[in-house]
Amino acid sequence: MMYWYGNGMSGWGYAVMTIGVVLFWAVAILGGIALVRHLTRAAGAASVSTPEQVLAERFARGEIDDEEFDRRRKALRSSV
Q: CB 68: neighbour CB atoms within 10 A?
């Protein structure tokens, strides 16, 4: 025995239920993706390089030579 109005769901009831379930899962999945992106972005922003690390990276990439590296490193250490 059915406890709601009528003998069951019509075609419209099934259509609305299907659309509702699809929308629910779409919002749940997109919300999870947004949460993961937010948490990984926040963790990446927390790792700030020191000036000496930036200088070492520039030296490693070949942007500056060893004399320039030594000169700038000494300048950084003397200003502290």
A: 13
